[in-house]
Amino acid sequence: MKHDVELQELTGKIAEASFFLNNASKELAGRVVGQRKVLERVFIALLANGHILLEGVPGLAKTLIVKTFASAMNLSFQRIQFTPDMLPADLTGTMVYDPKKMEFYPRKGPVFANVILADEINRSPAKVQSAMLEAMQERQVTVGDKTFLLPEPFMVLATQNPIEHEGTYLLPEAQLDRFMMKVIVEYPSYEEELEIMERSARTGVLPDVSSVVEHDDILRARELVDRIYVDEKVKRYIVDLVAASRKPADSGLHSLEEMIEYGASPRASIFLMLSAKAHAFLQGRAYITPEDVKVVAFDVMRHRIRPTYEAEADNVQAEDCIREILGHVKVP
To answer: How many domains is the chain built from?
Structure first.
């Protein structure tokens, strides 16, 4: 009985605290046509304190989505274009000499913002990726011999082009694993593309976006997300899904044994639970269900499962493996 009362109380607080997301969604809809799934995943990452890798061909409004999101959420924004000749200092900043004081002082780089759009992140070399990895994982940056904490909230939304390979680098697995989600940005529907074309032809300029959120709103929402109830059975369901990606045969998935080179890391379990909590928050619930886990499973796991060479030869993708795992693992 006490537990039910606590859940009811938390549900009421979630309803109050999530109101700011409705205002933000309206602002985003005024500028971004469609892409509801992508926008939902961005909200989930913000609430769960994670980063997102956006993959899609050019022209699908990836940059527009991130920039508009930052404006609506009243967060500082920086777009960083990654290039093969980029240096870590271009990202983090550098030490500058002051001849008057005869000493060095740090000049902070563009990574010191709440929302970072890392455009074409797979175009930068290893040293830049290493600096980015520190920022993403440790939420701090080292400039010279000094370490600075990054602003809170801090999230990276990185983009990469799936069809262009010249001048690109494969992201290290360690860095891929730091992204809470890898979201595939799809083409707009027929009707959405008509609206996009009409909006552009009608004005040529994008409508203004109002900042409708305060930092305290985001922090308060995150506190409530942390309190969302996760049943022991759901926790075990999450671990069962991740374990099935590592040793499919032990879970009865003998057909996947030769299809998966390596499965998802423990971060997959952590991020599945956190993102499922954030999804439940968006639905106004104080507890998560297996359905919340299923909704985010593809985005959390697709970049953590590597198919074997034989699987790729048979055109079997990570999504196919995840689909089979979700269909086989028993739902509590």
So the answer is: 2
Q: Token pair for residue 298?
A: 């593809």
User: Range of 239's domain?
Assistant: 229-328
Measured distance CA(221)–CA(18) in Å, rounded: 7
- 172 and 252 in a single domain? The answer is no
Residue 222 lies in a domain: no
Identity of residue 326: L
Give CA separation, 97 vs 87, 104, 157, in Å: 19, 4, 33
Residue type at 58 in one-letter notation: P
DSSP string, 133-195: HHHHHHSEEEETTEEEEPPSS-EEEEEE-TT--TT--PPPHHHHTT-SEEEEPPPPPHHHHHH
3-state helix, strand, coil in the chain (%, to 5): 50, 15, 35
Return the CATH number at 10.
Answer: 3.40.50.300
Q: For each of the chain's 332 residues, which pLDDT tens digit applies?
A: 446 777 888 888 888 877 878 888 887 877 788 888 888 999 999 999 999 999 888 778 888 888 888 888 888 999 999 888 888 888 888 878 778 877 777 788 899 999 999 998 888 888 888 888 888 888 988 887 788 889 888 999 998 877 566 666 677 787 888 899 999 988 888 988 888 888 776 655 666 777 778 888 888 889 999 999 999 999 999 999 999 999 888 888 888 888 888 888 899 999 999 999 999 999 989 899 999 999 999 999 999 998 888 888 888 888 889 999 999 888 88
